[in-house]
Structures are given as structure tokens and as C-alpha cells.
Write a structure and sequence with these properties.
Distance between the termini: 49 Å
Strand content: 5-15%
Mean pLDDT: 82
Strand order of the largest sheet: 2-4-3
Number of strands: 5
Low-confidence stretches: 109-119
CATH topology of one domain: Arc Repressor Mutant, subunit A
CATH class of one domain: Mainly Alpha
């Protein structure tokens, strides 16, 4: 029996979920789907500048999982950019951080990384 898949922790849904070329009306082109957790990996590594190990800690998964998701996500984004395909962010196997009940400790939103308040 295979091991159950571990859900990835995501600290927020993307504000923008659909991307694509502006200079074409080719609606029959393929749409590429980027999962929410692949989006989170790109956000953490490329935008926030985290190492894969730090990203893995925040998402509560193994570093090898982050590495695989990152490679898959970059390939999808490149295919969209180079070949003019639509890119949609949706789906996946994730859980959202619950920031309504104080601080989100894995992603450190709302507090300093060492546990001290930002006051």
C-alpha cells in the first residue's frame, strides 16, 4: 500500500490566477495548469529568495519534494512564456495557513522569524 500523500502548506492564495499572451486571440491553444503549491514554491524561492531547505520547512515537506515541484513549475512557466500558452493557477493538494488565529508559525507571517514580535 503506497504511503499517503502529504499535503503542502501554502500561506496564501494567488491574487492573479490566469496569465497569457495579449497579442493573440488563439483560444484553441493549450492551457497549462500550475498547481497552487507549485505557485508557492516559485513565490518562496524566486520572489522571497529562500533556499530550497527553508522553502521545504515553510511548506512542511521534504527538500526533495520542493526540488521536484520547483523543476516542474519552472518548466510549465517556460512553456507558457516561450510558446504563448495560457497559464492558470488552480488545484493541487495543499492546506492554507490559518492566519485568523494569530501568527502563522511555519511561514512567519506577522512575526519575526525568531519568535519575537515585530513591535
Amino acid at each position: 500500500m503506497p504511503r499517503p500523500r502529504k499535503r503542502r502548506r501554502v500561506c496564501g492564495m494567488p491574487d492573479y490566477k490566469t496569465f497569457g499572451p495579449l497579442n493573440g486571440t488563439d483560444d484553441d491553444k493549450e492551457t497549462i495548469f500550475l498547481t497552487v503549491e507549485e505557485y508557492e514554491v516559485i513565490r518562496l524561492i524566486d520572489l522571497e529568495g529562500l533556499e530550497q531547505e527553508e522553502c521545504a520547512q515553510r511548506m512542511d515537506v521534504a527538500r526533495s519534494t520542493v526540488q521536484r515541484m520547483y523543476v516542474d513549475a519552472k518548466k510549465k512557466v517556460a512553456d507558457s512564456l516561450v510558446n504563448g500558452k495560457k497559464l492558470r493557477i488552480e488545484g493541487g493538494d495543499y492546506i492554507l495557513c490559518d492566519m485568523n488565529y494569530g501568527n502563522c508559525s511555519p511561514c512567519f507571517r506577522g512575526r519575526h522569524r525568531h519568535g519575537r514580535n515585530n513591535d
